[in-house]
Amino acid sequence: QNAAFNGGQAQWYGLSLLAHRKFSLPVVGRMGATARYDVLVDQKNGGGGGGVALNSNGMDTADGFGIGADCLANSKASGGLGFQCKGAIHQDAALDVLFYPTQQITVKVEYRHDWANKQVFLKNDGSYGKSNDLLATQFIYSF
Q1: CA-to-CA dists, residue 142 to 85, 96, 104, 106, 117, angstroms
Q2: Deepest of 7, 31, 35, 88, by most Cβ within 10 A of its Cβ?
């Protein structure tokens, strides 16, 4: 209720697709591969909502949700607060390679590319861009 950036109702919808395949290679052993695509349309009332914490400028610098930096700058230049700005359409695609050296251990390597229709991803230099790339590894021990 009233959790969007402009104080209105926060509403969004999305879609997630995932495909996973396990296989075995002679030298490496048991492996897996995963492909995932996600889209979240969070445009109404400047984006935001439960679990999406927008800062006072209407941005979620950790995940790329919220309004775009260019819309906010244009609004402030005109004396506004950015409340007319729409939230971002956020998408990502991820490719994972998994290794299963034992029954309890999984090692995962992931490449993920996020993009949005607005400049919502905070860069190291303090500016904002429309995309972000991530390379990550996980070591999972199940017991």
Answers
A1: 45, 19, 5, 8, 39
A2: 88
- pTM for this one? 0.81
Residue 18: C-alpha distances to residues 32, 52, 70 (Å): 13, 23, 33
Q: Which residues of the chain have pLDDT under 70?
A: 48-58, 61-64
What is the predicted pLDDT for the residue at 47?
A: 73
Q: How many residues does the chain have?
A: 143
CA 135 from centroid of its chain's CA atoms: 14
Q: Which helix (H) or strand (E) holds 31?
A: strand 29-41
**Structure tokens that stand for 84 in this block:** 């007319």
Look at the block and give the residue holding tokens 């956020």.
Answer: 90
